[in-house]
Amino acid sequence: MCGIVGYIGYEQAAPFLIGGLEKLQYRGYDSAGVCTNDGEKLIVKKEQGKLKELKAMTDDGNNVKGTVGIGHTRWATHGRPSKENAHPHLSRSGKFAVVHNGIIENYMPLKQQLLKNGITFSSQTDTEVVVQLLEFYYDGSFTDTVIKVVSMLKGSYALGIMCMDAPDEIIAVRKGSPLIIGIGEKENYIASDVPAILDKTRNIYRLDNDEIAIIRRDSISVIDREKNNIEKSVEVIEWDIDAAKKGGYEHFMMKEIMEQPKAVHDTVFPRIRNGRVVLDEIKLTPEQIRDFQKINIIACGSAYHVGVVAKYIFEKMLRKPVEVDVASEFKYREPIIDEKTLTIVISQSGETADTKEAMEEAQKLGSHAIAIVNVVGSTIASEADSVIYTLAGPEIAVATTKAYSAQLAVIYLMAVYFGDILGKISEKDYKRYVSEFESLPEKISSILEMREDIKNIAEKYYECKDIFFIGRNIDYALSLEGSLKLKEISYIHSEAYAAGELKHGTISLIEDGTLVIALATYEKLYEKVISNVKEVQTRGASVLAIGCEGRNELHEITENIIFIPKTCDIMLPSLAVVPMQLLAYYVASFKGCDIDNPRNLAKSVTVE
Ligand code: G6P
């Protein structure tokens, strides 16, 4: 969601800015632009649509002069996607330029005040208020004016700011939305995320909330709003630029699907030592863990679906009540939680605004928050009471796959770890879980081997108008993810239903040819799901069944079957999700969809 880049050095800025924006495309966007200082004025080039429009307009940035600049990919919130609403925005006289990620919540009263003073606006964005305020309050000092203006803003923002009177500086400010500073040799950079600058430097500062960075060619100073210097420590990015490249695959999504055995392996193995699950990242004593009366899980999107799986697993294994909420609902439902409630938040990016705010709400009520996060150093990771990192590596495709799988793996680890502390797991079962952990990556690989079969099924059904996913218990929790994966990248209408609930209304939508994907991996409720399969078949549905190896009777029920290897109940979702991801991928591919950047979606949703 909105990508920011910035460059100050001795090279031409615009080609770097556009290259950086290309690496942030995964965040989702509908327009793009750059601004540079050509020595005489701030020049802005921007266009609605994909980056290729901006690249064509600027000859890949080569016809835009200047060695200082900022760039932006916009994901529209205030004001439709258009050239006028695209960033960078210039102030009235062209003295200031701003790029922004986030939402200025009080932009309306600020705008009214400026309008009363005769300032006119050329866009419908909240961001333009910032740039007009900078010019309105300008007192000759770039830094002082930025401090004055940001203290008037409410909401979330990462800002990259240029001023004609300070041609050798970029100022970066951050509150709520992520922003990093890349440290180079005689050149420095800003960006929303690491991939944008990784081919230039591995050394970064992560800007914290309310910090202001004054970035020059050969220096970076970070101050607070009282102008006190802040000592930042350099973070060295360990992962390789190749991790953020497609590595021979047509799409990031397929690359990331294929990386799942590694993501699960890397997440699980360092946490199994001498046959025991060790989660020493959790800053709670065994007594505190035993004392919890309830578990509260908060997340959005696919991470929420991991939470639904976790509810089934935790309640079954820990015998503690579990509530799971989408973060945007949790915040406003006046939740009943206190210090006896353990909160678990799940987020790939660690920047999702709703999840972050919901976590803060839970913490305010006294709850200890454990965050399961993929992006090291992200906001949620920094603000949580304990952090368990998924070690999935950078995830670029908007539709999550490997991060989802790594999050599931952490849930299993937590279930075994807590179950042991609570005395709910026998030694025999404990050993079995540990041995299943060890074979999980290999079992996932064996499903990936079946991708041609899944592609053939996708070819048969990619023209369907509606696809339903049904299942019971963890199969139901998993069907939520299967359905989301399909609809978000293929745009086929799809719904996930608890198999037993279908007959209470939705079965009326089943007609000849409707595809129903039935998850029948959870052995305890297998027969019941099969009864539901019969119900939909009687009404004309075609069925694709996903079941465990050995359930050969499925051949009598349908010709479309995907068998997954057997494993213990709790780990079934890690296997059954893979064919659904592949199916979604191939269906979208047959439909010719933009798989890595589905319409209207953003990878990291930093607005409420
Ligand atoms: C967006 C992404 C989803 C993701 C959700 C939560 O909607 O497109 O793939 O599941 O945000 O993101 P998080 O980074 O908090 O896991």
Q: How would you portray this structure in words?
A:
The protein is α/β, with parallel strands linked by helices and 608 residues long. It folds into three domains: 3-245, Glutamine Phosphoribosylpyrophosphate, subunit 1, domain 1 (4-Layer Sandwich), CATH 3.60.20; 254-445, 3-Layer(aba) Sandwich (Rossmann fold), CATH 3.40.50.10490; 450-591, Rossmann fold, CATH 3.40.50. Helices cover 35% and strands 23% of the residues. It has 18 helices and 26 strands. An eight-stranded antiparallel beta sheet has the order 3-2-4-1-10-9-11-14, with helices on one face. Strand 12 (211-215) and strand 13 form a beta hairpin. The longest helix has 22 residues, at 427-448. The chain starts with a strand and ends in an 18-residue tail after the last helix. The mean pLDDT is 94.
